[in-house]
Write a structure and sequence with these properties.
This protein is α/β, with parallel strands linked by helices and about 280 residues long. Helices cover about 40% and strands about 15% of the residues. It has helices spanning about 5-15, 45-55, 65-70, 130-145, 175-190, 205-225, 240-250, 255-270, 275-280, and strands at about 35, 65, 75, 85-95, 100-115, 115-120, 150, 155, 160-165. Helix 1 crosses helix 2 and helix 6 (about 205-225) crosses helix 8. The protein is globular.
């Protein structure tokens, strides 16, 4: 089985186990998975995969590392512990008809959660209040410079480059409001002046489903950084079906969507990187 198919099968099982109303990655506890040694966040598709393994095994830690890294850190992986896999792209040069051609290949390596390790003491978690998390969300929203106006329902309108949002009191809670805002900001990043994704899509098409998936993953990535979940998930179950159809047709779709969402989240969290993001 290829890496692409393994990842797709894992995500499909995640969607299937979610029921009709929410994708399973929205149930992950706050935080982005990080390398236990250097605290560097795992990017793109690895966020979803490690969240899934965290949920499936009841891990409360977001810290992961390889067997070798844990050993160097003076820790030992528990006997019988089962590894999870993270994926990355590597390149090599191959001679074709007398010319060197660069090839890209996906590789993977095993990692273990801090809960599977002995001898490691995690840094004390910083517990933030709802007010603190929501203030951070407001700061992130404000720094994007996005035009946000009152509206009857949440949407991003590419033609006029505006986000329309109902007032916060119409949501079940503050987390629901900010998660929805991050979803719309995900669409906002796709404008031709930013990351230039195709936003001229029709409802129920594959391209529409992909853009919705990118926006939802963006909301998950940004929300995970801030500590805002998406437990309310109030979108129609048809979204999940549309996503599933796309993933079944193309086993690289989820990787493409996660990479696009990573670029979108990076732009929202660090607007000063706009020029680099557009050029990427």
């Amino acid at each position: 089985m290829s890496n692409y198919q393994e990842i797709t099968n894992t995500i499909l099982s995640m969607v299937d186990s979610a029921g009709n109303w929410r994708p399973a990655w929205t149930q992950a506890s706050g935080g982005i998975p990080v390398n236990a040694d250097n605290k560097r966040p795992y990017p793109g598709i690895n966020i979803l995969l490690l969240w899934l393994h965290q949920l499936a095994n009841g891990y409360t830690s977001q810290e992961w590392a390889t067997f070798k890294t844990w050993k160097v850190m003076g820790c030992s992986v528990k006997k019988g512990a089962k590894a999870s896999r993270v994926f990355f792209f590597d390149s090599y040069t191959k001679e074709v008809e007398g010319k060197d051609e660069k090839r890209i290949v996906m590789k993977n390596y095993p990692v273990f959660n801090a809960a599977q390790v002995e001898g490691y003491k995690e840094p004390e978690a910083i517990i933030r209040t709802d007010i603190e998390r929501h203030e951070e969300a407001e700061r992130i929203i404000a720094q994007t410079g996005a035009v946000i106006r009152d509206g009857d329902y949440p949407c991003y309108i590419p033609r006029i480059d505006e986000i329309h949002m109902p007032p916060s009191h119409r949501f079940l809670n503050g987390d629901g409001y900010y998660a929805t805002m991050f979803h719309e900001l995900g669409h906002w990043t796709g404008h031709e002046s930013r990351l230039n994704r195709n936003l001229s899509t029709k409802f129920r098409t594959d391209s529409y489903a992909m853009e919705e998936l990118v926006a939802e993953l963006t909301a998950a990535f940004v929300g995970g950084t801030v500590g805002i979940g998406r437990d309310h998930y109030d979108q129609h179950a048809a979204y999940l079906k549309n996503w599933r159809d796309v993933l079944q047709k193309d086993n690289s779709a989820i990787i493409t969507a996660a990479a696009a969402a990573q670029r979108a989240a990076d732009l929202i969290l660090n607007p000063q990187t706009k020029e680099q993001a557009v050029a990427a």
